[in-house]
């Protein structure tokens, strides 16, 4: 067994960006696996957004709390990210965002301004209105959370990945790291029209029905997102590191735990790969097959013709899997 692969897996298994996803078990235990809609239908929990039946489509509702350290250190960027990550959640499910609201805490009016300006800049770039929320400028600390409302005619969910599907990574590689954060920034300096066109690819993908399932690559990075996708779909997978597009001079640990400003992991029948790639490539998006969805509960990593178990989802990560006990 390659010592390099073993060391990489050891480092990933102890990564806080992945292990902190276990906090989601708190919600899974308290809320269960689904909520009851007023018409009696079940709204499954554990996806990027709650998909609420509405006429012949769905309303999508999601929220994100922003890392307190980021709010303290770079409030403008925290404001930008608060909008961006919510729009990514809606797009991941094949939806289009309608509006966002925020909940902001600051120690003074002056301290609130960078967060507000960051949110306003992102809202203008992505063409999404901020329509209200909560503001407190007499707080003992700084804090920020944002919620988004979207709509979708067709869904891409996290629950339908199927064994035999190709594991597809779609990502905007035309970026760079933002400071010392594990954030691949392909948004703050991009053309707003291009940002909107890129997000519109996901509703188009949902309409095409070329894709079984997907998630946006979150703060858990590529490997954390893969675990969550497999957990909700009750399946396993093999991730092939040799196939993953990666910036020059960036080590695998950092890249696999990075949050990209435009990045999604899709479960696609192999016969549909080229059509999916053709949908994204005109918009500057890299689309690559990086592994395979498999039966069982084991997620493995392959590198340089060697393979090792990364995580057995018999040991739950988030708790959102109707067939796994916490």
Q: What can you tell me about this protein's structure?
A:
33% of the residues lie in helices and 30% in strands. The protein is an alpha+beta fold and 326 residues long. A hairpin with a 2-residue loop joins strand 16 and strand 17 (306-312). Helix 5 packs parallel to helix 7. The model has no long low-confidence stretch (mean pLDDT 94).
Q: Give the oligomer, counting copies of the same chain as homo and different chains as hetero.
A: single chain
Gross morphology is: globular
Name given to the CATH homologous superfamily of the largest domain: PurM-like C-terminal domain
H/E series:
HHHEEEEHHEHEEEEEHEHEHEEHEEE
How much of the polypeptide forms β-strand, as a percent range? Answer: 25-35%
CATH architecture of the largest domain: Alpha-Beta Complex
Structural class of the secondary elements? Answer: alpha+beta
Number of domains: 2
Please state how the strands of the largest beta sheet are arranged side by side. 11-14-8-15-12-16-17
């Amino acid at each position: 067994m390659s010592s390099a692969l073993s060391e990489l897996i050891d480092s990933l298994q102890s990564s806080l960006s992945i292990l902190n996803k276990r906090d989601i078990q708190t919600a899974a235990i308290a809320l269960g696996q689904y909520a009851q809609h007023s018409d009696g239908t079940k709204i499954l929990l554990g996806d990027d957004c709650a998909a609420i039946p509405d006429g012949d489509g769905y309303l999508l509702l999601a929220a994100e709390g922003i890392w307190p350290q980021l709010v303290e250190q770079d409030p403008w960027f925290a404001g930008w990210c608060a909008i961006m990550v919510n729009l990514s959640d809606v797009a991941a499910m094949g939806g289009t965002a309608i509006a966002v609201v925020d909940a902001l805490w600051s120690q003074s009016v002056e301290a609130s301004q960078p967060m507000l300006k960051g949110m306003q800049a992102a809202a203008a770039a992505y063409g999404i209105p901020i329509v209200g929320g909560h503001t407190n400028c007499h707080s003992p600390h700084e804090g920020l959370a944002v919620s988004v409302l979207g709509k979708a005619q067709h869904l891409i969910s996290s629950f339908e990945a199927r064994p035999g599907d190709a594991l597809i990574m779609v990502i905007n590689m035309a970026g760079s790291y933002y400071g010392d954060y594990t954030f691949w920034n392909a948004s703050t300096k991009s053309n707003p029209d291009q940002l909107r066109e890129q997000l519109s690819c996901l509703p188009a993908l949902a309409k095409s029905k070329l894709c079984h399932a997907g998630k946006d690559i979150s703060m858990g990075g590529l490997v954390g997102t893969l675990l969550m996708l497999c957990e909700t779909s009750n399946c396993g997978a093999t991730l092939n590191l040799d196939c993953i597009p990666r910036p020059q001079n960036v080590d695998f640990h950092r890249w696999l735990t990075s949050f990209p400003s435009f990045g999604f992991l899709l479960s696609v029948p192999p016969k549909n790969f080229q059509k999916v790639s053709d949908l994204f490539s005109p918009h500057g998006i890299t689309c690559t097959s990086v592994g395979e969805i498999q039966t069982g509960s084991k997620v493995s990593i392959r590198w340089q013709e060697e393979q090792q178990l990364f995580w057995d989802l018999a040991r739950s990560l988030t708790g959102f899997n109707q067939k796994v006990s916490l």
